Predict the 3D structure of the following.
Amino acid sequence: MNHVAPTRLIAVLSCLIALGLPCGVLASTPAEDLEYANALSRAFEHAADTIEDSVVHITTAAQIQRVRRDFFGRQYRVGRPQLQPTGLGSGVIIDEKGLIVTNRHVVANADKLIVRLHDGREIEASLVGADEETDLAVIRIDAPDLHAATFGDSDALRVGEWVLAMGSPFGFDYSVTSGIVSAKERSLSRDPTEASYQEFIQTDAPINPGNSGGPLINLKGEIVGINAAIISRAQQSAGLGFAIPSVVVRRVVDSLVQTGRVERGYLGVYMAELSPEQRRTLGLRPDEGIEVTGIEKDGPADRAGLKEGDILLRINGREVVGGMNRVRNLISLSKPGETIALQILRDGKRIVKKAVLSSRSALLGYAEIESLGLTVQPMTREISRRLGYRRHIPGLLVMQITPGGPADDAGIEVGDILTAVDGRRFATVDEMRDLLSSSLGVTTIEIVRGRMRGTVEVELE
């Protein structure tokens, strides 16, 4: 009788499960083993062939200004700015009209984007929009005969399922690596209470620098994620790769294409993780459910009838598993004004409540300053304290920046505090708008960045 070694057994079972083949007989002949291996190999080949023409290589370049110092240590610019290569990454075509999804960090601060297609064509791309909170961006090219990839449902992925990571690691174009889904709904934040819209699929498919922005695909060749990060001191694959789930990608991409930014829905609840003991008592799975610990008065959850102590189980039919980030992302998949269905556990009974979402930006006091191309929030004493300042800094905190807008071109960054226009100080959005309306041409804006204070010149639209 043939005996199968444990490691070989696991590999064979993985192949069988991935391919939907019967697992009735564990002992097998060498010929049968080879057929199983060939079947898995053919599945990999088919998946890679399906999406190969949709994967692109992205090269970025920026205008670099040489800087020198004089005798007194003061900096001054030398010569004209020169366009120099600054980075590379990957992307995937999602629309035959030329839309490409990638990571925001791949295209950030780039003055020129060059996309190389699988057939060798090189085409300059324009930025459609970017979302810092999910690290996603959409760019566009104008070219005929493009092949668009198809999205799959990342929620349908199972831990242990085979996936392929595609892209250009270290600049080697169109590489394919394989692995399994190691975990889902992962958060890379060290603080579980921190508000974040990032959740990841963890995979051991090797992801290296240059893979960023490329697709993670299932064996059908469908996009189930966008490669985003690796965890390694050496900045190369160490069996810990992370991809943004396709359900998040599709929502963000749709919003960026339609409006150039992402407006997220807001439910107005405070949450906490359940302990293992609570889950056992309630009859829940080890990773299922989030407890509602507070309700914002007159917010969407309050109007929907949610109560403190309710356990969130499903949002629009999707399971709440993996933590609070999962809840935030499921809510953000819907826009302000949309109605979502909340399945909750209350007093041992599962009931459904309907909530109409509000605008997160409006509730948090965000406002858009169109002439600068940015979104800001008024500074408060609490925000000043939270940012580590001993004294309150009046002004406006930059929350979002429109790619390619005046503020972006001037070098203003998210987290900067705007304090003055042409030497005149302000504390509110209306005050800044009034000052900007009386400014002509190039405007000087004072900013505070960390412990530094300085000015930038902005050419208003």
Remarks:
- Residues 30-51 form the longest helix (22 residues).
- The radius of gyration is 25 Å.
- The first strand starts at residue 55 and ends at 69.
- Residues 196 and 325 are 6 Å apart (CA to CA).
